[in-house]
Amino acid sequence: MDGTRRADISSGTRVRVVQKQDQPSGMLTDGTVSEILTKSASHPHDIKVRLTNGAVGRVKVILPERS
């Protein structure tokens, strides 16, 4: 699942984001969503979030729930 729809993401969701400084390389950072920063229902460049570790980035991958 990609990160273009705000409804697919909530606090506690495990995701992979690309941070601004990593956009040229495409390096992804794993983490758990702390706060959703994008206010609109969808965004063509992905939803921006803050992770629990303080990193801010755009959601590229929504990870499955741990079982």
Short note summarizing the structure:
The chain has no helices and four strands. The protein has 67 residues and is mainly beta.
Notes on the protein architecture:
- The chain is mostly beta strands.
- The protein contains no helices and 4 strands.
- The chain has strands at residues 14-19, 29-36, 48-51, 56-62.
- It has a 4-stranded antiparallel beta barrel with strand order 1-2-3-4.
- A hairpin with a 4-residue loop joins strand 3 and strand 4.
- The two termini are 18 Å apart.
- The relative contact order is 0.36.
- The mean pLDDT is 95.
Return the average pLDDT rounded to an integer: 95
Structural class: mainly beta
Number of helices: 0
Distance between the termini: 18 Å
The 3D shape can be described as: globular
Over the alpha carbons, how many angstroms does the gyration radius reach?
Answer: 11 Å
Largest sheet data: 4 strands, antiparallel, barrel
Helix content: under 10%
- The H-and-E topology, N to C, reads as EEEE
Strand content range: 35-45%
List segments where confidence is low: pLDDT < 50 over at least 5 consecutive residues. Answer: none
Number of DSSP-assigned strands? 4
Strand order of the largest sheet: 1-2-3-4
Oligomer: single chain
